[in-house]
Structures are given as C-alpha cells and as structure tokens.
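dumping this here before i forget
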Amino acid sequence: MLEDIALTRVIPQMTVISPSDSTMVKNLMEEIYHYDSYLYMRLSRNDVFDIYDENTKFHIGESYIHGIGKDITIIATGQMVSKALEAEQILKKEGIDCGVVDMYTIKPIDTKTIDKILNISKGILVCEEHSYIGGLFSAISEYVVRKNPIPIDFVAVNDTFGESGKVEELFEKYGLGIDTIIKKGKMVYDRI
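structure:
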C-alpha cells in the first residue's frame, strides 16, 4: 500500500512509525506494549537487511542519526534506509558531504533531529516507499518550510496506484532504487 502513512497520519493523536529492520521492530514492540495511546506501525512484507545490532535502542517519537552531512542529509524511513546508506557511501566518494537519518517515527515528527539537520546541512533528500503525498516527505516539508526553508527533494512514489509483484522489481519500476537516490542527491547538491 502506498497511501497508509498519509491515511493514518491525518488521524488526530495517531502515532505513526515505520521501522527499517527486524531489530528495530523487536525493540519498538516492547515500547508499544506500554504505549498509552494508539499507534500504527508499518511493516514490510519482504525480508529487509539488518542495519542495527541488538544493543541499539529506539524510542517512539525519535529517529536514529547515522550522520548529518554538511552538504546534504538523506532522511529515510522503512526499507529505504538500507538503500540510503548505500547511496550515502557512493555520494561521499563523489565528494558530497552526506549523512543519513533513519526517521522511523513519522508522527509525531522528530523536530529536534530536523533542527540539527537544518543547522548543519544545506539540503535534504527524503526517501520513502510511499506516495510523496502525505507521507514522510510531506511531514518533513511541512516543518522545514515553517522553520528554515532549504533545498529539499524526494525519492518516493509519484501520484499513482500501486501494483503487485516482486518487491525489488516494484522498487525499480517506481524509481526507488539506489541509482535514483544518488541522482536526486546530486540534484539537491547542485541547488545548494
């Protein structure tokens, strides 16, 4: 589904999270058990790469900072985090000071981390396997435009319905691959 974050994000007082690996899911499940409100957790149907070790701690309402780049920071969620980390290494080799933030909490958005990014980075690229309408890109843009407008772009699904198929083939069809992240990262860099 490409619309679920947008649909749940608009519900008053709803918390929305999108974990990027199984360690994060396990860790957050313990918090969800004691959570005092309602919450939507988006899970992928396919296997994902392990990013974190079992000692890494996550908290609802926060994000995980892998690094904040002086040029651009890629803010990713869900399955796009592992792709963003791969793209980051390539962009760094090409001379772009780049970082990655795993924004696993989409609502409430982690404004403390976004403020850190806005104080360091000159541009932002948002990556999500969701429609760019109403998802993480919308949430980040809504905050950035009020706080400190800087160049921002997205790697997400355009305004279309999803299809069934093999996950990696669908990622490529909808432009969610590492090559697209690199291309869009360079485009943001060119605008700073």
